[in-house]
Each structure stands twice: as C-alpha cells, then as structure tokens.
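step 4 of 6: structure.
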Amino acid sequence: MPEAVLPRVAVTEAAADMLRHLAATNGPLMFHQSGGCCDGSSPMCYPVGMFRTGGSDVLLGALEVEGIDPVEVYMSRSQFEYWKHTFLTIDIVDGRGSGFSIEAPEGKRFLIRSRLLDDAELEAFGLGAPRIGASGAAGLVGSGLATPGLVAPRLATHGGGDG
Amino acid sequence: MTIIDRPEAEAAQPAAPASSAPTVYANPGTEGSIVTFKPRYDNYIGGRYVPPANGQYFQNPTPITGQVFTEIARGTAADVDAAVEAGWKAFDAWGKTSVAERAVILNKIADRMEQNLELLAVAETWENGKPVRETLAADIPLAIDHFRYFAGCIRAQEGGISELDHDTVAYHFHEPLGVVGQIIPWNFPILMAVWKLAPALAAGNCIVLKPAEQTPASIHVWLELIEDLLPPGVLNIVNGFGIEAGAPLASHPNIRKIAFTGETTTGRLIMQYASENLIPVTLELGGKSPNVFFADVADEKDSFYDKALEGFTFFALNQGEVCTCPSRALVQRSIYDGFVADGLDRVAKVKQGNPLDLSTMIGAQASNDQLEKILSYMDIGKQEGAKLLTGGERADLGGELSGGFYVQPTVFEGRNDMRIFQEEIFGPVLALTSFDDYDDAISIANDTLYGLGAGVWSRNGSQLYRAGRAIQAGRVWSNTYHQYPAHAAFGGYKQSGIGRENHRMMLDHYQQTKNLLVSYADGPMGFF
C-alpha cells in the first residue's frame, strides 16, 4: 500500500496565530478531538504531556505551524470510525468552551470545520469507493481504520486551510 | 401537558406565577425586574466571598442579548487550594452531624428556593438563555424536589449487620468521603449543580464546586438565598476557566472524589487525574439518543398520537442543549411520510422568541461558540447529503435580541452513518431516518458510541418492553421523554459515563463503607 502523503487535518491562519501565542507560554501543543455533550465535538488543545493518548486513539496528523513545533491532532479510534470520510480544519471563534482547553481564557475557542474527502483522498486513505453524497444513496465503503498514513508521526500539513 | 415531572401539588401547566405576573419578565437589573445580579461575584470560600488570588475577573454575557451583565472571579489553583482547605476545616464537624440535622438543612434549602422560585427561574433564564417557562416549570421545581428527595433518602438509609456466626458480627456503616470536587455543566446551571450538591451534602461531605465558565453567575443568586443555612466551608464555590480552576480542582491531591458532567476528552483527563490520586470519579458525558417510533403509534389519531408528536419535537427542548436530547428520530417506514409530516407541523409551531416571554418555547443557545458549532454541523450535514426538511439557519429575532445566539429548530433527513447522526450537536437539530422492522430499529438505535438516553414509542406493551431492554442506554423513556424526576436513576452505558445520578444510589458514590468485624467469642481462635 502506498504511503499516504495527503493531509486530513489543517489549521486556519487565525487558529495558527492562536497556537503560536499559546505555545509561547505553554511550550509544545497537541489537540485531542472531543465527543459527547456540552463542549463535546470540539478540539481540545493541551500542552504536550498533559493529556495521555493511548492505543484507543488515532493520530490524524500534525499541523505545521510556522515558528512552533508541529501540533499533533488525535481522536479516539471509535470516534474516528464515524469521522474518517471527512477532512478537518481547525478554526477559532469567539467563545470560552467549558473543558480544559487552554485557549478558553483568551476569550476564544477552537472549532472544527469539516468537508468531505474527495475521491483522490478517499483512495489515498484506503477508504474505497467514494460515497455518493448528493443523493444520499450510498453508505461508507471500506474500513481502512488505521492506514499507514494515519499513524505516521508527521504527516505533511499546511496552514491556511479554507475550511 | 406536562413538560417535565414536578411535584404533584403544583400545577401541571408550565409557568405558574401569580396572576399579576407579567407575560414578559423585565430584563434583570432593569426597572421592574424580579432579580438583579451584582456587578461582580467573587469566589465563595470558607463561608464568605473572597477576591480571586490573582485579582482577575472575566465578563459574563447573557446569551439572550449577548450583553455583559456581571463579572466573575477568575479563580486559579491558589483559590482551589484555599477552598479545599476550607472544606477540610469544616468537615470535622459537618461529617459528624446527624442525618436528621442534615436532612433538615436540605429541606430548608428547598423551602427557601420554593419561596423564591420565580426569582431563581428568571435569573437562570438570563444566565443560560433557556425559556422562562422551562425554568419555572422544570429546572427550579426539579432542583427543589431534589433536595427534598435526598433529605428523605439519607434519613431512610440503613447500614447493615451480617451475623457471620454465633460470636462474630460484621457491621457496615456509611461514612462521608471528606472534601469532594464537582464540575458543573452550563446547560442546566442550577439543576445540574443541585444533582451533585444534594447527595454529597446529604452524605456529609464538604464540597468545592466549579460552575461552568459560560454560566457562572446564577448559582450565586441561589447561594445568596441559602447561604445562612450551611456552616462555613461546607460548600465552597470557585469560579474560573477549566484549565485554570477546573484542572487544579480535578487534580487536587486532597479531594476524595471528583464528579464531572461534560464531554469525553475532558472526562478522560479527569479520570487520568483521578488515577494519579487514586480517587473515584463519576462522569456524565452525553449521548446521541435515539427516539424510536414504531408503526402502531399511528394506528389512531388520538391523544397518544399527539403525545408521540410532542415526543418527536422534544429535540428542541432547552434548545437541544440536553445530554439526552432525542437528536436521532427513527420512524418505521410504513408510517414514515404521514408521521413525519405531522411531526414537522408540530415543529413549525415551536415558538421562538425572547426567553423571558412566558409564551416562548425555544430560547437562545448558551454561548457564541456553541452557536458556531451548531452552524458548523448544519454545514457538514448539508455536505454529506442530508436533506434539510426545516430550519437550518441562525435566527435573527430583531431588536436587542439580534445580539443573542438563536438557532431555528432544524430537521435533517439522512442516514445513521452521517456525522450529524453520530455526534452530539447540542443544538435544536434533529437527525431523522427510517427503519423497516424491530431488528432494524434496534440495530440503528445501538449504532452509536453513546448510551445515555433513548425513547421508544409503541402501543404494544410487549414491543415497548423488548425494545427498551435491547437498547444499550442507561435511561429508556418508554412512551414518554424528557422527564427527570428524582428517584429514577440517570447515567450512561458505553462512552456516556460512569455512575447514576438522580437516585439514592448516588449516595454510594459519596460514601465510604466502614466495616467493623467484631468477635464476641470469649476464647482465642486457636492458631497460635
């Protein structure tokens, strides 16, 4: 199987600015995507070492943000099963969250924006035939959970995602 | 029509203020308002309000207009330390109070709240954005009843005596844990606090409570009403942000238990901290609750059918900001078209407006980031090909409400593998799909990471029972939904959490078991 080189996560410029700001006082950072209620379904930003990832998690990639260490983005493996056909862009909005994500005191909250993977991406990630989104007729095909590209420690990603 | 269970002595109709009450409550702090927030709230530690150690405050807006109405102490680890210390100072005496004394205090708190129900309801609406008809009929009456319930539970609780043999007896006593930490969500700021406070106080614990940073103020309106009833240090409140106050509380080496309601990543972090300190946790982490309508609900167009249509519409209760929001509707294919058409008619009648207006049924989302998240889910729903049947936009209600965070009740039709069917949006967004038969219904209902709530609707008692047992969720409402009476256990299967609130079994989560193993034998055992 060819090594996937396509990213599946990105970060907007505004979010990247916040990451640089946070890294200046907190050191290297990472994200873990949350599920569930209240502040769920939001990306949680932590200093590296604060949150223990494990075998139940998937590494989606690492955000390359100029001036700071790559920011790894994780999600629980079970949640990823339902998310794997989408490309995620981390953006930022006004707000304050309610978890322990470290940007909250700044009056800002990281937010996930999503788009469907295109055909080339689906193929690259081993996700089989593309779903037929518009008609709603086809289900997800393929079950490539942890393709090699997904667990590679440093996937090339870039800033400036348009969400 | 009962929105949510309330004590029988009270009227079943929502909104029962005195006849002279207005149809629209004045904004708090304005002329004619029943409640005025203070311009600032400090932390409450050791029985008095004290400024935060670092001297910083943060602004608290109302989601109704987006305007700031008070500022709140930005607590940090130093404040948490002081609060935990104050709790331990109080614990020696509080932990030794008789159950009768504690029950009297809980009942007095309930009475005080009842005397101020309207004030608390308006404060809670201003804080959270939910309709005042809900806070009047559900949030505050339920909170009042919760204190009374645990006052009764602790009086009625018994230890155990096990007669091991003629000379040997094992006595089992309940003892409080000590100082416990509680982290409260923002969707029912007062009620969710009370769900945690009442059992912990009844059991004789002292508490450090961290309200949500989105809704940090209404709990202080409550506290001012009941402050004189609790000895100093028994209840301490540290406000602040999760990373600055919540994390230091959850990881504090001198708490004996941590309770949290929220989402999965923070839930994991709380367990991680608890593992470092080897303390117990209770977690309530949300869900993606299925609401299953079998074909026989449409056998007659009677009041049961009407009840089922209300059940369909309950996704909009509290703007969908409920951990058990019935956000997936599963409708049997043979009745799908007609039932969904009638359901959408009912949704169209949901009145959106000023939450302080007694006729308003759906108010404002609790915060801007919540609004943005809901809109981002509508976007991915459309991209995935889900069909928008109604709503789908932010709502601009005009005037001063234009600055508030309002979303139209929204219904998407799609498939259960779409993300809007799998993730808790925490907004008034229904994901609707069909099923063929019983097995199909159960399969779709259980195809989720979560298992907090579920609804089943059927005129066939056997089908109702079997489906309720087959769905992997801690609470299955059967021919009803969104009732939260004390004495019905509430908690999650799967990734929805650990523990059961709202029931006397929650006492166990706030108590140690002391076993005295006593020999009444006169002679030695004979080993040595």
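step 5 of 6: annotate
 - Chain A touches chain B through 47 residues (CB under 8 Å).
 - Strands of chain A lie at 9-11, 29-33, 43-47, 57-63, 71-76, 86-94, 108-116.
step 6 of 6: archive
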